Amino acid sequence: MQIKKQIKLMILTGVLLTSCSGQATGEPTVDVNAVATSIVGTFSVALTQTQAAQPTASATPTLSATPTTPLVDLRSLTPLATSTQNFGLPLSTIFFSATPTGTQYTATVDPANLASGCNNLLLISDVSIPAGTELDPGQTFTKTWKVANTGTCNWVYLYRLVFISGDRMGGEAEGLGKVIEPGKWTQLSVGLQAPNQPGTYTGYWRFGNQSGSVFGSTLTVSIVVPSATDVPPTDTAVPPTNTVAPTATPTATATPTP
């Protein structure tokens, strides 16, 4: 801005000098080209001084410190294979459940969810051979359950028990042989035989219709065949015999009279 003011002032001075030279007589004529050349030289010197007065830009600092964090190749990252969206939960909504300890109990199955069509069965009780009953090796027995018809259809003659899993123990169930109406109860039985080897044996049965579709609660039979060491020993000792000798009886001896 200061340079522009100086240029304007020089031009104005040259114009005034030129005007004065035309009016005065007898004075030498001012060379206009010389004035212009002087103005341009002055402008150049002023511009050079202005540029010299400006501060020079310092060199750009270079980072010499080695980064402590290793660079990661983005091409080696494996994208998530499940979801492409992130849903963040506020911290106040995040909770942690305590880890349960001790004995874990299996939830009781709702008998209403065990129906097959219009058929369903509810186990009422074990009639014979409660769980853990000890039987001799190879002993035959009959397991009986008390059950109720909780469906909406009749149980008819060809309905029977069906082996599901576990130890079969030679069981072969026969047909129901009667009609059980909804809301009524009955007893279901199957003939079994204890294994010859010691151990605990458990079998699982369910009731089924004539086409083999099972329904209702699972019926369980569990027995124990004890080993020979588990049987209490029999007392085979012979009672002692009385060996006391009888006491001798003294006999009278006749003494002769002199």
Give an overview in words.
The protein is of the alpha+beta class and 258 residues long. Among the domains are: 2-23 and 32-50, no CATH class; 111-230, Immunoglobulins (Immunoglobulin-like), CATH 2.60.40. Helices cover 17% and strands 22% of the residues. The strands form 2 sheets. The protein has a 4-stranded mixed beta sheet, with no helix packed on it. A 3-stranded antiparallel beta sheet has the order 1-3-5, with no helix packed on it. β6 (199-208) and β7 (214-225) form a beta hairpin.
Our measurement of the CA-to-CA distance between the termini, rounded to an integer number of angstroms, reads: 194 Å
Shape: elongated
Number of helical regions: 2
Query: Which H/E pattern describes the elements?
Result: HHEEEEEEE
| CATH topology descriptor of the domain at 111-230 | Immunoglobulin-like
Q: What strand line-up does the widest sheet have?
A: 2-7-6-4
CATH architecture descriptor text of the domain at 111-230: Sandwich
Helical residue percent band: 10-25%
Task: State which percent range the strand residues make up.
Answer: 15-25%
* Structure classification: alpha+beta
Low-confidence stretches: 22-27, 91-95
Mean pLDDT: 74
Q: By CATH's scheme, which homologous superfamily of the domain at 111-230 applies?
A: Immunoglobulins
Radius of gyration, Cα only, in angstroms? 60 Å
Q: Tally of extended strands?
A: 7
CATH first level of the domain at 111-230: which class?
Mainly Beta
The largest sheet is: 4 strands, mixed
Main attributes?
258 residues; alpha+beta; Immunoglobulin-like; four-stranded mixed beta sheet; three-stranded antiparallel beta sheet; 2 helices; elongated
